[in-house]
Design brief:
heterodimer; A: 112 residues; mainly beta; 49% strand; B: 113 residues; six-stranded mixed β-sheet; globular
Amino acid sequence: EAGVVQSPRYKIIEKKQPVAFWCNPISGHNTLYWYRQNLGQGPELLIRYENEEAVDDSQLPKDRFSAERLKGVDSTLKIQPAELGDSAVYLCASSFGGYEQFFGPGTRLTVL
Amino acid sequence: AQSVTQLDSQVPVFEEAPVELRCNYSSSVSVYLFWYVQYPNQGLQLLLKYLSGSTLVKGINGFEAEFNKSQTSFHLRKPSVHISDTAEYFCAVSENNNNDMRFGAGTRLTVKP
């Protein structure tokens, strides 16, 4: 069984540029999560989807961040424009039926 | 809302020695508890979880953890560590299976030869 797939694995951009991350969850998993992990910290939830619906986006900085999960499968997370403080690892996870989350390898974003 | 405190940011230990990574949580309701491991440049991998039942939980790679409700703790232990156990370990808590998981700041375990 394939795990959670994320791309790109690494991204370096200059500030004020846009950037997008893509996530393909484990087949059949209806819940999808995006987390941000700052250096030396644990993951912090940005947004959670149940199928196509964003059910928890309270921690998503909506002025510059957006996300979508069309057809309830793949998801993209976008930042526009990026700021220096957005440098972090962005993790995608998925689950079915709750509690156990399976994580992808993450995208390491560096904003110069 | 629930929260997690990992009491040690770094734990150095020699190979074949025992290790304990400490985790305390705060919640007003019943919780599910988890330990994840993160190797460099990789995502998080589940080591073990407590949902209900026996308070002693065994996981992969020889790790185990004990849920202590009175002390609101969920410490991770291994009787004999290997070099390959060097990684970042995260404790996490979820309230009543509400899909809202909170992570601690992590403990970096370094196993030295």
